[in-house]
Every structure is written in structure tokens, then in C-alpha cells.
Design brief:
Helix content is 69%, strand content 3%. It is an all-alpha fold. The protein folds into 2 domains: 11-180 and 229-244 and 296-431, Na+/H+ antiporter like fold, CATH 1.20.1530.10; 249-291. α4 (96-120) packs antiparallel against α14 (337-363) and α5 runs antiparallel to α6.
Length: 439
């Protein structure tokens, strides 16, 4: 069937990232134009529009932008958690040999940018932003790689995906450990209780969505008031979701075969009636439930939430986060140490860290380059990893209290991400002209 054959899960994942990155760019452009237009007051008012509810005589409300950043972005982090768990248990991080290269490359691509930023900002109010240049935006990086089409070696796509997922894991740990101002133990205990309820529903293999939804909402709300950022609840919940089938392949085939055979000899296909008997209906239901047990909940949720994340959540985040009003106050100290730390960290630090640690892994015999991947490809990917965007903006809003510092950081992130995207694409396009033969 050629190109009409069903695409693999990874191909669908890559495609959604490529398409989603276009929507993300459009949302960013709209935010920037809107925030610098005569209607910028409306943009500000909409971002701070209070939305909430009253429960037990108490009012719970947040601005619209906070609902996006603390609420919808939890789903984004939930999908990130599912990706991390899938790769660790089933994918490119499932064995020490396979995991070594992307893990060390991601560590290098996180530590070196943070050190460069610290070099520019060792003290002062900007010193807390060292986590900003550590992040890689997987949507944009994979989206640009997808523009190069079939010339990209599969091993390079997998390497970048695994690297970006480890990078996300590092970013999650950094947010949890270093960007939490105060912790309320009672709320964390409540969050642990709700997570335990969620885990109980998973172990009991309940088929009732309400038994998962209520504990998930409870865990999210408890984490939100605990002082730890609410979106981390999404990662914790994702780590409890199974990514393996409930039954093994042999049991699945045996049960399905037996049920189909019994259904066939029952006269199901020869009956003149248009409806099944009670016994036949029970067999059909058994086939359905057995097939359902063969589909891991984690992969099912990841597949169906990716379009929501790519085409709804991240564009909304960009719309309410990327709207920087560029004026004399914003540009008064630009470029300053903060912006230089971010730009050099993302554009230079990512290259140095990823290439250096990848080279050390190869020289020390800890890992090999993926098949068909050359050092020029690794360099090109290391440049693409400098596209921080979503996660970098997210961390900048956690790390800085002064709105002017946040705006300066966002402008620097835009510059570094655009530069990394253009240069990375150019390097990879030139290096892929010669095919996939390693040098």
C-alpha cells in the first residue's frame, strides 16, 4: 500500500509537532502585534479577566492568563510526563546503552547554558533566571526538522526527540526544586492522598473515568495551593498512568480467537435477524473489552491529547505569554546582562554542551552515534536545541518578579530561538545534501 499504509505512532507524533509549531508561531505573532497595537489595553484586560467559582461560601478565581498557565498547561506537562515514562520504559531511554547518548547530551545542553547565564548574572535580581536558557522547545525543534523531509536519518529524529524529552525532565526538576518559593506541607499531604486514590483506581483497572478524574483534579488543586507550581501535578499523575497493555500479546490473541470462533459457530453471520442474541452480544463485548485492554492508557491519552496540546493549549499559552509591549521602558537596558545571558546561553551554550558531551560519550565508548548520523547532523541538532520558547518563557515568568525583567527575558528568548531555528535549519539542510552515509 506504500504511502497509504498506516503511519507509526512516532510519525504521527512528529507530524503533530510540525503542524502545531506553525499554529504556535501564528499565536506568537498575533500576541506581539496585539500587545503593541492601539488595542493593547484590551489585551491586558483580557489577560487579567477574573474567572472562577464560589464553593462553600468562598470565592476561588484567577485571571484568564493564570488559568491558561496554571490550568491548561498542566495538561501540557501531563503529556510531557507521559512522553518521559514511555521513553524510559519502552523507548529510546529504556536501556542504559540507548539512554546514555541523549541523557548526557541533554545534561550538557542544560548545564552549560546555565553556567553561561550565571557568568553574566552572578548576583542581583536577574540571577534567578539561570534556568531560562536550559530548556528546549520540542514542538519547534521537531517542527523545523520535519521541514527537511525524508532526508533526515531516522536516528537523528529519535536522538533529538529523546534529547528534548530528557531536557523536559530536567526542566521539570528545576522548576520543582528551585522555582518554588514556599511549601505548605498540609497541601502536599492532600496532594499525596489524591495521587494515592488515582493509583488505586489504576491498580484496580477501573473503567469508570470519574474515579480517575476526581483524584486528578484534587491532586492538581492541592499542588496549586501548596506553593509548588500546579503544572507539576500533571507530571506526577502521568507517571502513574500505565504505558504497557493490561494483558500480554499471546493472551490477547488467544482470547480474541476463541471469542471470534465461538461467535462464528453461534450462527452470527448466518442469522437473518439484524440484532445479536444475548450470548452473541456478550461475545462482542468480550472482544471489545479485550481489545481495549491491549491499548495502553498512556499511549491512548498521549495520542489523543497531542492535538489538544499542539493546537489549543500551547497557542493559548503563547497568546497570553508572548505579548510583550516594546517601548522605551522595555528597551531601556536592552541588551543587558540578563538578555545576553539568555541569548548566549541558548544559542552558544546549547551547541557547546550537546556537542561536547556527545563527543565525550563517543570517545569514552559509552555510546555510539545513531546509524546514518554524522557530526554535522549533531551540530545542527544542537543549534535547534537552542529554541527555548515555550519552556523558557514559562520559567522566566516563574523566575522574575519584575515585569520589566520578564519582558526583557522574553525578547531575548525570541531572538535566541529565531537565530537558533534559522541557523540550525541552514546547517542541517547543507549537511543532509550528501545523504545519510556517516563520515
Amino acid at each position: 500500500m506504500g504511502k497509504l499504509t498506516q503511519r507509526t505512532f512516532f510519525d504521527r507524533f512528529l507530524h503533530s509537532q510540525a503542524s502545531g509549531s506553525i499554529v504556535l508561531i501564528l499565536a506568537t505573532i498575533i500576541a506581539l502585534i496585539w500587545a503593541n497595537s492601539p488595542w493593547k489595553g484590551l489585551y491586558h484586560d483580557l489577560s487579567h479577566l477574573e474567572i472562577g467559582f464560589i464553593f462553600g461560601g468562598k470565592s476561588y478565581q484567577m485571571g484568564l492568563s493564570h488559568w491558561v498557565k496554571d490550568g491548561l498547561m498542566t495538561v501540557f506537562f501531563f503529556v510531557v510526563g507521559l512522553e518521559i515514562k514511555r521513553e524510559v520504559l519502552l523507548g529510546e531511554l529504556s536501556t542504559l546503552r540507548k539512554a546514555t547518548l541523549p541523557v548526557l547530551a541533554a545534561i550538557g545542553g542544560s548545564v552549560v547554558p546555565a553556567l553561561i547565564y550565571y557568568f553574566f548574572n552572578p548576583v542581583g535580581p536577574a540571577s534567578s533566571g539561570w534556568g531560562v536558557p536550559m530548556a528546549t522547545d520540542i514542538a519547534f525543534a521537531l517542527g523545523i526538522l520535519a521541514l527537511l523531509g525524508d532526508r533526515v536519518p531516522p536516528g537523528l529524529k529519535i536522538f533529538l526527540t529523546a534529547l528534548a524529552i530528557v531536557d523536559d525532565l530536567i526542566a521539570v526538576l528545576v522548576i520543582a526544586l528551585f522555582y518554588t518559593s514556599e511549601i505548605h506541607i498540609t497541601s502536599l499531604i492532600m496532594a499525596a492522598f489524591f495521587l494515592l486514590l488515582f493509583y488505586g483506581a489504576v491498580k484496580l483497572q477501573s473503567r469508570r473515568p470519574i474515579l480517575y478524574l476526581v483524584p486528578a483534579i484534587g491532586a492538581w488543586s492541592s499542588v496549586m495551593v501548596s506553593g509548588v507550581h500546579a503544572t507539576l501535578a500533571g507530571v506526577l499523575i502521568a507517571l502513574l498512568v500505565p504505558v504497557r497493555p493490561k494483558i500480554d500479546a499471546k493472551s490477547f490473541l488467544d482470547d480474541i480467537t476463541t471469542a471470534l470462533h465461538t461467535l462464528d459457530i453461534s450462527g452470527f453471520t448466518r442469522a437473518e435477524r439484524t440484532y445479536a442474541t444475548k450470548e452473541q452480544w456478550n461475545l462482542i463485548e468480550k472482544i471489545y473489552l479485550t481489545a481495549d485492554d491491549m491499548i495502553p492508557a498512556g499511549l491512548f491519552l498521549e495520542k489523543h491529547l497531542h492535538p489538544v496540546q499542539a493546537f489549543v493549549i500551547l497557542p493559548l499559552f503563547a497568546l497570553f505569554s508572548a505579548g510583550v509591549t516594546i517601548n522605551t521602558a522595555t528597551m531601556a537596558s536592552f541588551p543587558g546582562n540578563l538578555s545576553l545571558g539568555i541569548i548566549f546561553g541558548l544559542f552558544i551554550g546549547k551547541q557547546v554542551g550537546i556537542v561536547l558531551l556527545t563527543w565525550l560519550s563517543k570517545v569514552l565508548g559509552l555510546a555510539d552515534l545513531p546509524q546514518g548520523v554524522r557530526w554535522l547532523h549533531i551540530w545542527g541538532v544542537s543549534i535547534l536545541a537552542g529554541i527555548g520558547f515555550t519552556m523558557s518563557i514559562f520559567i522566566s515568568e516563574l523566575g522574575f518578579k519584575d515585569p520589566l525583567l520578564v519582558d526583557e527575558a522574553k525578547i531575548a528568548i525570541f531572538i535566541a530561538s529565531i537565530l537558533s531555528g534559522i541557523v540550525g535549519f541552514t546547517v542541517l539542510k547543507a549537511s543532509l545534501k550528501g545523504g545519510h552515509t556517516p563520515l
